[in-house]
Amino acid sequence: MNAKPSAVARADDPLPQAILAALGTAATPLARPFVEHFFSRIGSEDRSAHAADAWSGMMRGLLDFVRVRKAGTPNLRVFNPVQDADGYESAHTVIDIMTDDMPFLVDSVGIAVTQAGLNLHLVAHPVYSVERDAGGNVLAFAAEGGKGKTESLMHFEIDRITDPADRARLEQSVRSALDDVAQCYRDWPAMREKMLGIADALASSKLPVDAAGVAEAQEFLRWAAADHFTFLGYREYRVGQSGGEEVLQAVAGSGLGILRGSERSVAPRSLKSLAARDLPQSGAIDAIILTKTNARSSVHRPGYMDYIGVIEFDARGVPVAERRFLGLFTSSAYARRPWEIPLVRHKFEAVMNRSGLRRDSHSGKNLRHILETLPRDELFQASEDELFATATGVLGLQGRARARLFVRRDKYGRFFSCMAFMPRDRFTADVRERIEALLKDTFRGERLDSTISVGESALARLHLIVRPKPGEKPQYDTVQLEDRIGQIVRNWRDTLRDELVRKHGEEKGSKLANRFGRALPAGYIEEVSAEVAATDVESIASLKDADDLRLSLYRPGNDDSLRFKLFRYGAPISLSDALPLLENMGLKILSEHPYEMKLGDTPAVIQDFEVQSAVRLGFDLEQVRDSFQSSFERIWRGQAESDGFNKLILGANMGWRQVAVLRGICKYIVQTNATFSQSYMEETLNRYPLIAGLLVELFEAKFDPQREDPGKTVLEGARKRLRKELEILLPAEVAAAHPGFVDDLVNARGQDRDAQMQAIVAALRILLDRVASLDEDRILRGFLGVIGAMLRTSYFQTPGGKAREYISFKFDSSKVPDLPKPKPYREIFVYAPRVEAVHLRFGPVARGGLRWSDRREDFRTEVLGLVKAQMVKNTVIVPVGSKGGFFVKRPPASGDRDAVLAEGIACYRLFMNGMLDITDNLVDGKVVHPHNCVRHDGDDPYLVVAADKGTATFSDIANAISAEHGFWLGDAFASGGSVGYDHKGMGITARGGWESVKRHFRALGRDCQSEDFTCVGIGDMSGDVFGNGMLLSRHTRLVAAFDHRHIFLDPNPDAEKSFVERERMFKLPRSSWADYDARLISAGGGIYPLSAKSIPISAPVREALGIDAGVESLSPNDLKRAILKAPVDLLWNGGIGTYVKSEAETNADVGDRANNSIRINGRDLRCKLVGEGGNLGCTQRGRIEAALNGVLLNTDFIDNSAGVDTSDHEVNIKILLGDAVQRGELTYDTRNAEIAAMTDEVARLVLLDNYRQNQAISLMERMSVARIGAKQHFIRTLENQGLLDRQIEYLPTDAEFAERKARGLGLTRPELAILLSYSKIVLFQQLLESDVPEDAYLSKELRRYFPTPLQEKYAPHMEHHRLKREIIATAVTNSMVNRMGATFVLRMGEDTGKTPAQVARAYNIAREVFDARALWAGIEALDGKVNGNAQIDALLVIWNALRGSTRWVLNHSDATLDIAAAVDRYHQGMRDLRGHLVEAITPRERQRYDADKQRWLDAGFPDGLAADLAVLPTPGSGLDIIHVAAEHKLQVERVAEVYFALGEALHLSWLMDRIESLPVESRWHAHARGSLRDELYSQHRALTVQVIEHGGNGNGAELVEAWLNRDDPALKFTLGMFADMRSQLVADYPIVSVAVRRLAQLVQAGG
């Protein structure tokens, strides 16, 4: 019967309930059980075939369809549902059947559908218990097993049939199938009883067999009846007479099942045509016929029906009747073993016995297995002899790789059973089809059925049943057929095996054939000859693993066609990948033939490309094959890039690395803002392959270490190759015009390096002169120029014989053509397929960070912009500026953060290695050059790097690489590693920037450390600069901030509570503004993601940010702009990006596209001051614009220089302590502990630099208006010397200077910061080139540079420090420029004619003599206690004193300027002078002194400091006084009395005031004024000497009085002249000059 339902109907099943609801009034009591049980048999997948409304329509129709059915008659319909008629529509044709339940219904209907060539799409087969009345009307439905008769409902959906006639035919076929099933089902018991009755009757029948045979026949029939045979039909036949011959006639009324009632339609059949007539009388098998019919079953299974015939014999043993059963052996029958099946077991035993094999022997077991695995139909139908021949024949095949064929003719001639055996590994679908075709043709087959058996045996079996066409009597020769099958199976692979054996011998050839030859696919075999396949097998066999690759570029015949074959494991290279790759190599793909081989778990692929050269292929294939194949592999593996340069591999016979050199140069040129694109440069070089080749030749001549002494054999080979390439590529017209072109180049190949280079350059110039296009000429000459500027390369460094995956190039930037300014001192460009990187240095000793850039096309431009800032930033440290950047070219496509980081680190490592590979090293104090690196520059061992954007945690990686290289700097190579100073932990960058913030607030008269102030910011608390910065004052009221994720708004924050919360967030790993405790945010504030479309703006936010009234919401970008424009005290930038530009700049000028939408102009800033903790937050022009509009700000390189300063100290401390470690005085661990212990001390030193740079700018700012001419002159001077480009630095033009002067404006702080830095850059180099670093007195600066714990302990080591001179030069530069301003050294030098080194010495003398350090310390200690402007005023007093004293020292000392001697001479005298000055000065001077002191006291200065400051302007030239006292061996105070009394008497103070008030319109005015001042001091001193030498008694005033009372006409004339001059309203240069000159005459007269 039918299977049980797959699901149980549920009352809560939603679909049936929905359908019942949809049926509405049609939902009769019959509907619910009908629908619910129907869907209990429908799975979820089938339910989705229709929507609920379609199911509803279907159920309505099915209910109507099954409502009435005549007993014993099926309801059947075949139709195409339409909505109007059927309530639903379907794309399929529907068959609905309702009939009595019986077996095989669904299978049989399925046979009918399949035989019609149609497919089933849905089958529903619920079985119901149905109660009907006598008229067939349904009374009740129930699930199967309920009350009523069991009926089957079948719903089929099949391929759509549009033709009504076709639907009618299908309906008839289905109805016939249903009738056959019904017939079989009704007669099943009768047919079974017939078989059992026949079995019982055999014992008494007259059979020509023995008793054992009869018993075996009985057993078989009973076995078949025991559910081993599906009965489909039965009929009896008897032998009769018809037409004078014996015929077999059907017995009327004997039919059952499908044979019931059709006896009259069966024509009598001549007995002569029946094989039964000639059956041998040998046993039970002769009494029973087992065969197949010629008809297929329409019930249950669609195969040919099995035929069991029982023969009845007369007394003579002649067949007189047959009882015939038609049906199908069941699956259980086929599953039985041969010795378990009656009749078959008899044959099995007979075969085993006849074989003579022991049952337990190997062969015996094999024969048993063969019989067990033979097709069951063969066992049923074959005779003992046939079975024996077949079984033993198969046994003979065991272990032999050959083909065999066994043919058995059906006893009745209906079919031929053919079993073909062949090696399993050679059996394919193609082999099967060819064998089927052969046997069908041989046996004149009308129909053919085949089955395949492929098991564990080495043999595959193809079993075919061939049914000849009616009337055909085929003749065949089994041996010939077997041979032809052998040809089909063995032909191609045998040839392959023979070829492999011929080439490799029996053992290896057979192994190759067995493993690889067998795996070649049928398509390959059809297309490729066995001879070519043998070569391919060799290539495949040589593959080592899935990463390996084999290639073959060849010509398949004598024609010019080209093929390129690729062999590898795994998946084939997709055509979309191969196509551009090969096209870039100069080959066009015409067609592709891919083949896949199954080799274990991993397939191997052969890709055969038919290609055509797209470039002029002047070289023989043999010349370029290896290079091309090697290049393809490298490109495919990603070790070389795929681009148009690769055409040079075929076009110029280059190797992939030679191409990489040109590509690397091109990439560098692109980075230099070249006019031309890479693609244009590719086209140009491909258009001139000889020039491209000679450029590579020049590169190799310049840098190949073996070039000058290659050895005779190598040299001859190189010359031969070069000659051949030149002859192929050289244009005929060039050869004719320059007959010696080839010979000159070839002959130069054996000369020295310079001669080779000169010959190649000369040849290139000849070729370049013939380049017609100006653009192409510029491109080619650009390549030539870059190679000319190249100093070193790593190209020839091949450790272990393997090329590195990158190439490093070092350039003298000044020689690179068309390089944009500023040009670095040196640069290194690292090229690799994965990464491109550049490192720019502006001096031999330079440092700067390396950043992970996201600007593929112009990261060098980005780095150049950064290094400009680094240059001015580095003026505070020892090294000059450098900067590096790298671009990751192949980031993981997934975008996974960890994967991207890993690739970034890998590229960073390549960058580091690339630089160190070509950098000199120091070993035991001696310079060691890189291996295999030809140098065209001097020793260059200093290379230091640092972290930057994207590389904050990479320092340990860099230092590990340094260690791998044995680099002399060790872990000082990259600062900020795990053994070093943690910038974020120290907060040093932010703290440095905060020094600027505090300075600006002091300028406003406020103290940000004790008074609340409002602030907006860029960044979040997880960031170093922003996070640390927002924790540097507990009085910060952060109103708003934004980063790349959120906007934070807190319009009225509580300073203390918000500080505590920010502190918590800073400690929270990877925090964002979203982690801020929203409960602490003031009313109207909030935290908003940037993904929001708009952000609400509350009234408090509008007020805090100065947003117009009425604005209720803003987009995130508009709100960011509002934050930047907020009217707060401080804008703190701790983020990445440029947010402020000038009105004159476009966003494109800025070069930061990510922030274009939020950037504002400097004039739009409404904050009082800006702190630039981050780099490039403002453009320089934006800063200047903001400063001109009243905003207090410096520059980023001033504000955030503490980081670089810390790193510099770290590096130099490590170098210092490294010396001690090398000497065994210190262990590595102790060194690390000492470094860590000095963290706070290093921070103190660094912050002091930040403090003093801010102080210097404030001092310069105070004098900016008055001394604007000096600034202009300074700029002009540096410009004339080529040391500064005011356009690059955005400094005012001369016209702008004039305008500012007219408006009473000076330079802004950002502009002054530039001048401050440039003055340090210039002075540092001047001092470094002088003997200042060797001055014994200035060696104190070397110690002061280092932290206090090191100053005494490691003083001897400091003398050996590698950067001793640079440290001293830096310290002297900073101390002088920070105190005296940018123009001081230039002005002193011009006024006195002295060198910068002499000025530096003189300044140091003046500083020490005046004890200026103590005075500065006293002023700086008042931070936050007095007005910041008053502090600047105090510094100006010291500045004036030191300026005058320095000038005096320069004018009154010899060239040596011995600092120690001068200090020893003047220091104590100055102390004495200042100590007694109040008693020595005149009443007028005392009055001035008292007023000054009171002014300082009123400003909050302590009494002692106020007195010191009041004294400083008074002494005039104190050094003159000390000098005179020393010469005359007098006490200083005694000389001072005379000096001041004389000045009072001659009104020299008035004259000095007139000099100081002279207008300065130009540098010459300034020079004249300075000269007058010097002259006045000089004459004052000379006259003082005369007074002293005049003699007399009394104090100074009395001595002067006595001197004045002399009868001296010159003196009287002078006094009268001065009296007249004092009466003049204006004292200009002529008047003052006359006065000073008159004093000189007075001196002369007195002398």
Question: Quick summary of this structure?
Answer:
The protein is of the alpha+beta class and 1647 residues long. Helices cover 50% and strands 15% of the residues. The termini are far apart.
Task: Describe the fold and architecture.
By secondary structure, this protein is of the alpha+beta class. The protein is built from 66 helices and 41 strands. Strands 22, 23, 24, 25, 26, 27, 28 and 31 form an eight-stranded mixed β-sheet that branches. Strands 7, 8, 9, 10, 11, 12 and 13 form a seven-stranded antiparallel β-sheet that branches. Strands 1, 2, 3, 4, 5 and 6 form a six-stranded antiparallel β-sheet that branches. β12 (304-313) and β13 (319-329) form a beta hairpin. It starts with 13 loop residues before the first helix and ends with a helix.
